[in-house]
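General statements about sequence and structure are easier to judge against a single worked case. In the encoding step, the backbone of a single protein was reduced to a row of integers, each denoting a local shape. The record that follows shows the chain in one-letter code together with its fold in token form.
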Amino acid sequence: MRKLFCLTVLSLLLFSASTISVPNVLASPEEKHEHQKESSHDHHRHWKKYNEYLEENKDKIVPYLSTYLNKEQPELEKLLQNGSELHTLVKASILSKLGKVDVTEIIAKKESGQSFKEIAKELNVNKEDIYTEMKKMKEKIKNNS
């Protein structure tokens, strides 16, 4: 009888351990941004659309970044000519402004292999602030058309 009781308790413990749901400790669904809820196909489509937007508005973006960063436009165009992508320059500009460092420093860190996420963490720049700044930038460029 004792053996049966022990087996019953053991099986209950094993069964209940396998059905315990563990909450997501990193972020609840309410804390996620809309883009984090997208499937990988949607994310790819969003990325493609973003790059198309940048290319279509390149003639407005570089002058805007020049004013935004208080830098001469030829200096930013030189970064593009030296191999930086437009989307990299936009993200680097935002991190530069929020992190209070020169954009060339951000580009150099990116070229040395650091991700924007790592650079932002190093500069104590919050992801939400980056998204807010990107939205502001897009709206201002749109309104200046």
Observations:
- The CA atoms of residues 120 and 127 lie 8 Å apart.
- The mean pLDDT is 78.
